[in-house]
Amino acid sequence: MSVSHETKTKSRASSGLRVKTKWNLKRNWPLHALLFPAVALAFVFSYLPLPGIVMAFQEFKPWLGFFNSPWVGLEQFNKLFTFAEARQVIWNTLIIASLKVVFQLIVPILFALLLNEVKQMGFKRSVQTLVYLPHFLSWVILGGILLDMLSVEGGIVNQFLGSFGIEPIFFLGDGDWFRFTIILSDIWKEFGFSAIIFLAALAGINPSLYEASIVDGANRFQQVLYITLPSLLPITIVVATLALGNILNAGFDQILNLYNPMVYEKGDIIDTYVYRQGLLGGQFSYATAVGLFKSVIAFILIITGYRLAYKYADYRIF
Amino acid sequence: MFHISRSYRIFSILNIVFLALLSITCIAPLLHILAVSFSAAPAANANLVKFWPIDFTVASWALTLENESFLRALGMGFYRTALGTVISLAITVLAAYALSKEDHEFKGRKIYIFYFVFIMLFNGGLIPTYILIQNLGMINTIWALVLPGAVNVFNLILLLNFFRTSVPKSLDEAALMDGAGHFRILFTIYVPISLPAMATIALFTMVGQWNSWFDGLIYLTDSAKYPLSTFLQTLIVQKDFSQMNINPDEISMLSQRAVQSAQIFIGSLPILLVYPFLQRYFVKGIVLGSVKE
Which residues cross the membrane (chain B) (predicted)? Predict the structure, then answer.
């Protein structure tokens, strides 16, 4: 592009700044060009698979393809609600995911409040450095470590419990203990990282509020109750409503790396079920129907969550 | 600041003790497997090792680092991480710049935003995506690992909000007046100003690529192409040892537990190495990026 041409477009552009209806292709084509790689990749890998969802309404046979596989209407969804196994899986997902959502809200807030009381900056920083770390390790690594540490035959956790006279616990082989382990280990991995946003909110509270309360004779507990907690409310509402969208995400990575056939009954979730039935079992249509069921509900919940966050906390992502 | 009562002082001490213990639980598992990996076979097999090696030996590490399959997977892991990070970061920076413009400056911005947010909310699911990758002929290629996730909408939002809040609008306008085009503005103004935010995203992407294992498991049928995370998953979680071609005499001298611990620790080592850099940036990056102007 020649210099004179650029100056021309520029002078036209400055007037275009105020004219809202023009596309300004001459000046803005680079913006479209910059977006092209992202748009193209999103199209291929996110939009192209969408029509594949039709297989949820078919009896899909890979060798017949989408166009020749027989249509079966809602039969796949019928299975979903009549199979005892499928109902159990949905139930497991709901229980595990909602407990995770609740605790992943409460624990980080409590942790942020406690850490906020620490006045020694060096100690505070060290604590933060250590508690953020597990978030960055994968469930393959942590799964490997937990399988070893929680083993019934002399795993370090059972050895420790044994020193208090507690019988070895089959953490990953007993359904109820499995759920407990899944939820606890998830809290352990994420609480520090989830606390970042609350720590930022705590740092943003106007110090004059505290000074005024001291003049009024408030003690530290009263300050937390009447200043700190109310100040955290907006961000808590945002996090809580956005977490709504995760109510069917019980943690595919985590469960796939920790579970075994002994705990399918109480530990199998929608995502692991889709993987086993679909990719391992070859029931493409049924697995897609289960996945679609999950996506649709999650989609509704996420939209609801954003609406609520916008309404009650004036939150927008853009 | 406020009147320090006796009960508050007691609380403070208990609080510090509690937080210290909590922090220790966050690294104790890693320290435990590190200790096991450096322990001799009898102690490791008998579960005697706590947080300090017993009869220190590097035999397990030596075996792991001499194993060809392991090294190949390690190399694939690095290759995948490097390629995936470069592609993803480049695409994200370009798109975030365009989307950071105001609606009235860039007509069509809203449509693009909707286009990207939609894929964050709704996707075809596991099976249709798998069939697509298969039809594209990408099974058994590195592209199946690095391309599908290259557009990370979360990172895109983070970076575009960073651009909007941290690059002064006047700088933009001055450059436009001087005749700079969008490409020039992006590379001479936005990129230098936003290095911390871009470092955050680069590090997040690196960690994500390094930790990914599931895509390798389903899209690669040739286990010789597995990146380390996938390799470790089949080895440690699925207990499939066929890929680790180890001489049976050799393994009988060693503790399988110690060898596995060494492998797990090496798998987490790259994360531990980038973590100090990561930690310096991400708090600021996240907080700034998530706040709307």
Answer: 12-35, 78-99, 111-133, 139-163, 183-207, 258-278
